[in-house]
Design a protein that fits this description.
Largest sheet: none
Shape: globular
Order of helices and strands: HHHHHHHHHH
Number of domains: 1
CATH class: Mainly Alpha
Distance between the termini: 25 Å
Radius of gyration: 20 Å
């Protein structure tokens, strides 16, 4: 079975995209024209995000089909594949369809953007969380779960504190928020609690799978953890921007977080695919030796 791009190849493409984004910021700083950065995120940046979704979906599908039907891990990776599919659809809507709507005004572009974000954020996080939960259950049955470190608890604690603070603000401002935001924007408020849950799951799996399949399985869930942490960091940046704590144009730095976050979501199944390919190669060698 062909597994598609390797983690190194995805990393190389992602570093190239991030380098171009930094170049756009440098040109902005030199010329004073912010269109350098705006145009990057409208066109090459948007297409890069969609590319990572396609890569994540293809690789997740390949991993899913690599398991026998009815296996617990087969069900888990079916959910992870559905999460990738939903992320691709939502990202395509928010990144590619919205600019067209802004030009021709067929629909309210803000509502369309928020609808896409609902799919690529809370809905995707929910499916991803369910998939990782099934993996955790398999690991617990096999006795593979490992304890977290102090650094892990610190990262999780910070994420939970930010989530609780966000919840407190939503409760305090709910009457006003209902008037200002559409239903899709309000559904997006579920992102932070789901990210906190994902961070716990992915870190536990990363610690537990570090020595499985040559470390590739641990790298897979570690990549999910990195993607979740960077996404959480991006949400913190959006919160800082919303409260005016970071003046313009410095608030634009938040935009650049989404490039590596998207890359890590694609890298995660790439590591799992490599781990499965390595296991299949080892099995083939054993079978060949047995026959000889």
């Amino acid at each position: 079975m062909r597994w598609g791009m390797t983690p190194r190849q995805l990393a190389a493409v992602s570093m190239g995209a991030f380098g171009v984004s930094v170049l756009s910021a440098v040109m902005w700083a030199i010329t004073g024209d912010m269109n350098w950065t705006v145009k990057f995120f409208q066109y090459p940046g948007a297409w890069f995000l969609v590319f990572t979704c396609v890569a994540q979906l293809y690789l997740s599908y390949s991993v899913w089909k690599g398991f026998e039907s009815g296996e617990p891990m087969e069900v888990a990776w079916f959910l992870l594949t559905m999460a990738a599919a939903v992320r691709l659809l939502g990202t395509s809507i928010s990144q590619l369809l919205r600019p067209i709507l802004m030009e021709y005004r067929w629909l309210d572009p803000t509502v369309v953007r928020d609808m896409g974000i609902v799919m690529s954020s809370p809905l995707m996080f929910l499916l991803l969380g369910c998939g990782l939960f099934l993996v955790l259950r398999v690991y617990r049955q096999l006795g593979l779960l490992r304890m977290l470190t102090k650094v892990d608890y610190l990262l999780i604690g910070l994420s939970v504190l930010f989530c609780l603070h966000q919840g407190k603000e939503v409760i305090e401002w709910l009457p006003d928020l209902k008037r200002r935001f559409n239903v899709f924007a309000m559904l997006n408020w579920a992102s932070d609690p789901l990210l906190s849950l994902l961070l716990v799951e992915s870190i536990i799996l990363w610690r537990s799978g570090r020595h499985l399949a040559g470390g590739y399985i641990g790298h897979c869930y570690g990549a999910f953890a990195m993607a979740v942490m960077l996404t959480s960091l991006g949400n913190v940046g959006l919160w800082i921007e919303a409260w005016g704590l970071l003046p313009w144009p410095y608030r634009a730095v938040v935009w650049f977080v989404w490039i590596p976050a998207a890359a890590w979501f694609a890298v995660a199944p790439a590591y799992m695919a490599q781990g499965m390919a390595r296991a299949m190669a080892g099995r083939a060698v054993v079978v060949g030796e047995a026959r000889s």
